[in-house]
Amino acid sequence: MLPIIRLNEANCKDCYKCIRNCLLKAIRYSNGHAEIIQDECIGCGECVVTCPRRDHYVMSDLDEVKRAIRTGRQVVASVDPAFISDFDVSCIEDMRDALQQLGFSDCQEMAIGAELVSREYERIMRKNEVEVLISSACPSINLLIRKFYPDMLKYLAPVESPMVVHCKRLRREYPDACVVCVAPCYVRKDEAMETGSADAVIMFSDLKQWMYEKGVVCHNSHTQTEHGIRARRYPRSDGIVKSMSKIPGWSRVSIDGVGDCISALEEMRMGNVTHAFLEMTACEGSCINGPAIRSNRYENRIRGSIAVNSYAGDFIFGVTEENSIRATYSAQPVAKFEPDEALVEQILEKLGKNTAETALNCGCCGYPTCREMAFALCQGKAEMDMCLPYLHEQTEHHSQEVVSSTLEAADRVIDKQMRVVQDIASILGETTAETKIMLEKLKEAIQA
Length: 448
Hints:
Layout: E1 5-7, H1 17-21, E2 27-30, E3 33-36, H2 46-50, E4 56-58, H3 62-70, E5 75-79, H4 83-86, H5 92-102, E6 106-109, H6 111-126, E7 132-134, H7 139-148, H8 162-173, E8 178-183, H9 187-195, E9 200-203, H10 204-214, H11 239-242, E10 251-256, H12 258-269, E11 276-281, H13 301-311, H14 341-351, H15 370-379, H16 388-428, H17 433-447
Parallel strand pairs: 5-6, 5-8, 7-11, 8-9, 10-11
Antiparallel strand pairs: 1-4, 2-3
Helix pairs in contact: 6-8, 14-15, 16-17
């Protein structure tokens, strides 16, 4: 995976929040800052959403799209169906009007591709080609399976995503045009580069900034959709399931969020699931809560769901596809790391976390347990100072050493001064009592 998301090293300040929220721990921390491990990343964007400084570099094709428009090239957009939840519009016509003001020739709903994908899922289930079918609409989930659960690839639907299907249709309809995907998630860029389906990908957040710069305001026609399309439900939780027809003998389950999807895949490994269609999406709340929609998590869940529900319905586009939309997803397995147990115990002892009482498992470092932190240290993905209790103990020990050495120095100085004072007093024939008391108080003040 190319570095679609990069962290800003200069402004990364020891909070470990991205590590804490990355369930796959695809982040390395060294030299005082975090770094995404691209081979292990699934592009979910959780690190971007949860970073308190919002300081990431996200690969964008916005300049390329602007350049294509300036040169007079025809530019057409495939707009993710989640647009209805994030822009002040009521239909695709409103969205088309805004994009045409920016110079786009045309824009269409990616939901057209979603409808074709749903029909293909139904065909696979009717033919019982597999015992379990996992939706292939979310690129992050596809990468999760390809990298961390390659044994589950046999269940991943061998079907292109709605974005790939629709962008290919646009390319055939507009053979000389620049095909642009407008998406709520960053991983679409990786998918576009891998499949070659789109020439460029821009995020909802990019588009909003561009519209702001150009003074383009979405016109909301407040159109009441009489013939809502089922595939428009795709961006909400259970949207894929609700866009499909029920297939006799098959159960349908909707799972959203990387954590729940991982749990489901682990359950599937036990072999207790059969004749089930599993809709899996990486974002909690699905695409209406995509990382490029809102900077604040869960802000759009209710309003977005209501907007999607209002725009969708029980009708279909009725489109057909002569070309095959089947796909082959290859494994990209992440090498499993099996740390030497003796080394792990050695690190835990150095951290002072080698007993049940001392292993606090506080999670301050970003890892849920001290042992997992030790694993990360073995892999070179973490540093000792990430452990806050360890750092506190080291600081306290260092402070005690400083105080101890200071007291020793003070004792030597006071003893020397006492001898000097006594020598002077003996010469002058005066008492040293008052001077001795003053120096003793000074010593007590240093020791306090």
